[in-house]
Amino acid sequence: MDWTMLRSKVWPLVLDSRLGLGITGAIIALRFLGSLQFLELLALDRLQQLSPRESLDSRIVLIGIDEQYPRNRDNEPLEYTDLAVLIETILINEPTIVGVDIVEDKLIGDGSARLLTLLENNKNLLAVEKVSEPSIPPLEGLSSIVLTEQVGFNDIAFDDDGHVRRMFLGWAPEDGAFRRSFPLMLAEQYLKD
Predict the structure, then answer these.
(1) String of b and e for 47-77 (b: at least 16 CB within 10 Å)?
(2) Is 39 part of a structural domain of the chain?
(3) Do both 11 and 94 map to the same domain?
(4) Structurally, how many domains does the chain consist of?
(5) Is residue 58 part of a domain?
(6) Domain span at residue 76?
(7) pLDDT by position in tens, the chain (length 193)
């Protein structure tokens, strides 16, 4: 057997496998160190943008009051009474679930008692609180049953690049009282009925 000929055929295969193993090892080391995380997150964001849109569910109606709302009303914040009237109007149509994603520090006026009554008398009405610092407690005066069954937190976590890719389902702050998230509570209530 001619060793020179054998070596000329085997040696490139050995080099190719060493090169492949070296590149694979380098990529694993870079991933282990977190150096490729930014590129992986960019790829994830791009793939989510390219994915087909989900069809809209005609049984769900979302009403949003965003940061543009006060600007359209001479920079006046939303009043308790206005929110209570809106919720009462929605409840007339007997929806399965109504979620109010407005924290109390965004409301003004004297109508908080009317809003409390709505929350206490309608089990399908959910409200939010903010549990991360600085925390914003739910509407003052709610019963303990309403606090555990109808109030969820809506805190989010931003990634280092400022995007939101994760949502919390539960939270156990320093006081030790476990709380469920607002979106999780909405889904649970919706699926119950």
Answers:
(1) eeeeeeeeeeeeeeeeeeeeeeeeeeeeeee
(2) yes
(3) no
(4) 2
(5) no
(6) 68-192
(7) 566 666 666 666 666 677 777 888 888 898 899 888 888 888 888 998 898 988 877 766 666 666 666 555 566 667 777 778 888 888 888 888 888 877 766 667 676 787 788 888 888 888 888 877 777 777 777 778 877 788 888 888 888 787 877 788 888 767 677 888 888 888 888 888 6
